């Protein structure tokens, strides 16, 4: 059993090229992590950026982390939050929330980052929506570099961000061989944002997901010659999830119900104060 490498798919979101590491047919989830889009880099102007208009979510938490640039988040809770590198936006959808990601009105320059979703467990997925911004996150010194702990715990250091199931996520910035202690009960995924890293005899570069099954108590990473890497981990998610569009649900009927609510604008997903248009797609083919 070694590292499993899957290639990301490519998509276009506004002006931004996206490398989608999760979900892929071969690998749907890593712990509760069920979606991972490496965004950019793309050139933003004060009025042109990600430009993702209001759209709904349920049953998941979104994690937004930038490596370059600035983005403005709006949501149906009334949040208006600028995010910059080193900061975390964490939105909990629960039974329903909607949001947009926009140009800031002032920032011009490159934008790059990653957006991740964590599936919520049965205990919280029908709960209230919520939003957290963390202006700074705890850091860990590693031999060979440093890590920012976005969610959960790395090397005894725990993020203040909310998690709903046993999950961790960290950004590693390494310029020398690094040994990273991990929970042997967790499965892990590695997504290189910049540079390259050798792990378990394979070289990982941007545009791929490296998956490691539960078992190891440490990961040995050798950057070539430096790397910025997202490390995602968690207990294998115990509930079978279904993903359709922006919803993490349990079956097709739930997807249909959620999407009818969004199309009818019946209040389940609230209203976002945004100049951008609501994102609307057709009902699922089975509806
Ligand atoms: Mn979204």
When the domains are counted, the total is: 1
The CATH architecture term is Sandwich
Question: Low-confidence parts lasting 5 or more residues at pLDDT below 50?
Answer: none
* Gyration radius, in Å: 18 Å
The percent of residues in helical segments reads under 10%
Q: Which H/E pattern describes the elements?
A: EEEEEEEEEEEEEEEEEEEEEEEEH
The largest sheet, given as strand count, sense and whether it forms a barrel, is: 9 strands, antiparallel
Q: What would you call the structural class?
A: mainly beta
- Strand percentage, roughly? over 45%
Q: What's the CATH H-level homologous superfamily?
A: Jelly Rolls
Termini separation comes to 41 Å
CATH class: Mainly Beta
Identify every distinct bound molecule in the structure, by name, code or SMILES.
manganese (II) ion
CATH topology: Jelly Rolls
Q: Given the C-alpha coordinates, what overall shape results? A: globular
Specify the number of helices: 1
- The number of distinct β-strands equals 24
Mean pLDDT: 96
How would you describe this structure to a colleague?
The protein has 1 helix and 24 strands. It is mainly beta and 287 residues long. The chain has one domain (4-234): Jelly Rolls (Sandwich), CATH 2.60.120.10. The mean pLDDT is 96. Bound molecules: manganese (II) ion. Manganese (II) ion binds at residues 55, 57, 62, 99, 246.
